Amino acid sequence: MINVKQLINDIYHYHVSQIGSRVNTPVISTEDFDEKPDKFSKIFSWSTNGASQQCITSSSPSISETETQAIDASTVQILVSALMTWGIDNSLDRVCSEKLGLKKPSNQVSFGLRGFNGNLSVAAPSNDHREFWKISQTMTAAHLLSIVGLTRPFLLMKGLEKYTSDIITHYGTMLPEFVGTKFHHSSLAFLSKYFQDPAEDIRHSARTLFSSALTSMPSIELQSIIDYWKQFCADHPKFLSKKVSENTALSLILILHEDPKLVHRLAALELCGKGFSTWEPYILLAVVKTILGLAIDSDSNVAALKAMAQKAIFQIASVNTPLCISTLTYDTNNSKKPAEKNGFLKLISLFIRKKPLLLYSSLSSLVEAVVRSLDPNIAKMRDTVLQTTTNVLHDLVKTFPSIAFHGATQKLAVGTQEGASIIYDLRTATRCHILEGHTRAVTAVTFSGDGKIIVSCSLEEGTVRVWNPSPGLFGMLAGSLTNGNNSKSEGKKFKSLSTSTKPCKTFGFNLGDDGLCQFS
């Protein structure tokens, strides 16, 4: 099986050191994925137009980022071109050649697996390309994982998404139809080994291929798998005894905190997220804080852990939104480390872009936490998080109609669920007005062109209110005092603030049932 990580590294350094000319390799023998060495090693050799064989290692010199990106792209094209089965679907071949720049190898390539004690088995060449998929389930799984895992980066390239999806669909779903009888479906045991692989593309590809294999598997074979595994699985997971659920939750917590193996911690995070509704009674708030901490970790060595933690946080928030969002808001408010606060702000931005409805009921407190990060009295913190905070505020304004921004005056307006609208001065990171008048949730707010007039709307109440707030000297002093006192008493309602303003005009309307907003 091709060790994709090592192969890419070695071909990359081959280009860098410019050893020989164009690669011409009739046979590639490679390591099994199961090996997974910690460091790159010599994995294969090739001849280059009659030159002596060269062993490519990771000791070649480094190059610039621009050159790296170009080499990575061509490397992926070379590998995918060699891995593909050409000639069984002409339409796909054309797409690969014309849209993705892939080329059918001039010489036939044979692939093999390295098994027990390092023994290597290589498939004999055949004129019928379909024969390769009739060798074994392990060979099929290994080859498909290589193709799909290497093809996924094309999804990130603008304009290539559709063509890349066609390739993944072809090999992940339609391949058995093109190969015909005696096709060996992917080994589920082999694919399951990579469910928690640190490389996201490999992890995602393994899960996709696993699901696809189950879907396309013959019913008899599928039934035998079900019969085998049902003895290990709970018949009704929702009705697990309290003791079993408690012990499972405790085990997940211990693994999450103490297990040194990355794969175990990844599994614990995934189970914490997916099964949170079951473990919630036995999981303390500290565990949610731990997962939040992992979700904002900037250490590049635990990128896979960070991605899984973020996924778990989204799942936990879907089950218990108040717990998750209030914890995120509290930690953002009280974080004293600039890097940590920056991480929390980025996580908020991720929520805005991926799960905005989860934030809707907590927008006012969340915005307050974001605005406070701009406090000019804490210059170092402000300078560190300024760009991230700006991005978060931009996402908030773009996503939620109940939030508006006026650039010239640097004012931010936020409509609340209680019916008030809060106006912030971003230059001082303080509240400058509380606009009270609506009796139901504020649906939308906006500023006039000069920023002097504010209009708010409540669909539930059926009113539009026009405001002309002018604080004056007393109002500004009261606003500053109120903001200072509010930091000591977060739980106070907006209507208790002394800087409230009344609307100058009110207009009623009736949309009937169309005016009812539903969020799920």
From TrEMBL:
PROSITE patterns per record: WD_REPEATS_2
SUPFAM superfamilies associated with the record: ARM repeat (SSF48371), WD40 repeat-like (SSF50978)
Top-rank taxon: Eukaryota
Record keywords, A-Z: WD repeat
WD repeats (start-end): 435-468
Record's signal peptide: none
Protein name (database record): Uncharacterized protein
InterPro entries cross-referenced by the UniProt entry: ARM-type_fold, WD40/YVTN_repeat-like_dom_sf, WD40_repeat_dom_sf, WD40_rpt, WDR72-like
